[in-house]
Amino acid sequence: MNLPPFDIFPFISDEKIRLRQIIASDMNDLLDISYYDAKQAKNVAQAIEMQAKIDKDYDDGNSIHWGIEDISTNKIVGTCGYYRGLDKGEGELGCVLLPQFRGKGFMTNAMQLAIDFGLENMELKRIWAITSKENNQAIKLLERLNFIKLTDLPDDEIEYELKR
Ligand SMILES: CC(C)(COP(=O)(O)OP(=O)(O)OC[C@H]1O[C@@H](n2cnc3c(N)ncnc32)[C@H](O)[C@@H]1OP(=O)(O)O)[C@@H](O)C(=O)NCCC(=O)NCCS
Question: Is the peptide bond prior to 5 cis by the omega test (within 30 degrees of 0)?
Fold first, then answer.
């Protein structure tokens, strides 16, 4: 098992996007999608506080959170990462795109890079994702990435998983 924190923060890319560490100057752009413990930041100061908690979680080995950058513009378009389960050799994959960058294929590429990194480099034995039954775009995304639907969860949520 090869888990965070890594000697060098993992930087991964394909022909369309880069997954990279989030830095202070990103916080303005990411405000609309800055969350921690399911709470959304109301201003940049709160987003910075949340990012400090995210960085600590990474240093403690509990998560890894990437910024997704569009290679053609160098603009940050969203985030993704593993947020739970690493202590058991598994990873809950989460993701969010800024609304103006949805419907362009960025997240399919980002999740594929995160999945390949999780399985090959981190040696995760299982990756899972939870979404609501109404979240058609998330369901399409997960099915496109070959996640398999598991049993329904309470509160209209469903779990999808991908195994090695
Ligand atoms: C879930 C979420 C990331 C999906 O975003 P998305 O834009 O649909 O996903 P992608 O970036 O992979 O884009 C794929 C879509 O772009 C379309 N597309 C347009 N141009 C494209 C291109 N050049 N290349 C690839 N796809 C393209 C695809 O057809 C696809 O649309 P479809 O699913 O309606 O067929 C987004 O809805 C979101 O941020 N939601 C809020 C957070 C959330 O629900 N997270 C999920 C938790 S599990």
Answer: yes
For ligand 1, is residue 99 a contact (CB within 6 Å)?
Answer: no
**Number of continuous H segments (helices) and E segments (strands) in the chain:** 4, 10
In this structure, the residue with its CA closest to atom 16 of ligand 1 is 103
Which residue puts its alpha carbon closest to atom 21 of ligand 1? 104
Model confidence over 67-113: pLDDT tens digits?
999 999 999 999 999 999 999 999 999 999 999 999 999 999 999 99
- Is the pTM above the cut of 0.90? yes
What does the alpha-carbon distance between residue 54 and residue 41 come to, in Å, rounded to a whole number?
Answer: 13
CA dihedral 56, 62, 68, 69 (to 10 degrees): 50
CATH (domain of 33): 3.40.630.30
> Integer distance in angstroms from the first to the last C-alpha of the chain?
13
Residue 98: inside a domain = yes
